[in-house]
Write a structure and sequence with these properties.
By secondary structure, the chain is mainly α. This is Protein LvrA.
Length: 294
């Protein structure tokens, strides 16, 4: 593994404690992505892995020495204050950016000048005569035909974007269960710049609805595990408003409300009773008059 340390990095490391210098040179810098300047994405790093890189094995006359995670954490903080690195992670994975490193440098992209220097001098001289080029022209031609170094990526790293959006979701979601599974489900969503906004907005509405129903003494289903909520795209679920719920409850209550038994019979016979009401009255005075006449 070859990597280049430039003058700016050496100047920043000068005078720092050996632990901090070794943490940068042994635990961080060899694993930097030359295109982005990031460490910890393609090959994960941690405080423990850096401590293992700095472990001194016991030998004759040499005492073994190891460093704790707290010591490594303090060393990285000092490197950050010196301007050598900048933390890019948000708690789930350690990601660092090497601020002073040279971008676009790798062994595969170096200009291959050894091949020109190893040519036979006689053949090289004959080649100069036949082509009519000067002694400096073949070197320039060889440089022009060699592969160019890759330019650093200008767009933000997708992994950092994904990680930051997941941390926002995790902080917002009420149920903190199975974070690793939730992270895997979040990665499977294939996020677009607009999708996180939809997820956060829908989740906030669901949280407000849950709190409102709970304060009113209404039964509300328990929150799903975050991984299931993401995998089932629950941010697309519609929230039933209170007005619709009250209307449905009113209809339900009307349909199933018990009516008195006498009401049904009374309504069917009421008209007939009213029509015959006069015929059922007996005039006692007329009846007595007829009896006296006889």
């Amino acid at each position: 593994m070859d990597f280049l340390i430039n003058d700016k990095e050496l100047a920043a490391l000068c005078g720092m404690p050996h632990l901090q210098q070794l943490a940068y040179l042994r635990g961080i810098r060899p694993y930097m992505d030359v295109k982005t300047g990031l460490v910890g994405i393609k090959r994960g790093i941690s405080y423990q892995s850096i401590a293992e890189q700095l472990y001194i094995e016991p030998h004759q006359g040499i005492k073994s020495e190891s460093y704790s995670r707290m010591q490594i954490r303090r060393a990285l903080s000092a490197l950050g204050r010196a301007g050598l690195i900048t933390p890019q992670s948000e708690g789930l994975k350690l990601i660092l950016r090497c601020e002073l490193a040279t971008m676009g440098y790798s062994v595969q992209n170096k200009l291959d000048l050894n091949q020109t220097q190893q040519l036979d001098p006689a053949k090289n001289q004959q080649r100069l005569i036949n082509t009519g080029l000067s002694k400096t022209d073949p070197l320039k031609a060889g440089i022009d035909k060699s592969p160019k170094a890759d330019t650093p990526l200008k767009e933000d790293n997708y992994y950092i974007f994904l990680l930051s959006q997941f941390e926002k979701f995790w902080d917002l979601y009420p149920l903190k269960k199975s974070k690793q599974k939730a992270w895997e489900a979040f990665q499977a969503l294939n996020l677009t710049p607009e999708l996180p906004i939809q997820i956060y907005s829908a989740l906030q509405q669901q949280i407000q609805f849950y709190q409102q129903q709970h304060s009113q003494g209404q039964w509300v289903a328990a929150w799903k595990y975050p991984a299931n909520w993401l995998a089932q795209h629950c941010w697309k679920d519609e929230i039933q408003s209170d007005t619709c719920q009250e209307t449905n409850n009113a209809v339900h209550e009307t349909n199933y409300k018990k009516q008195p038994i006498r009401d049904s019979f009374w309504e069917s016979c009421k008209s007939g009773i009213e029509e015959e009401a006069d015929d059922n009255i007996i005039d006692l005075s007329a009846y007595r008059g007829k009896s006296q006449a006889h």
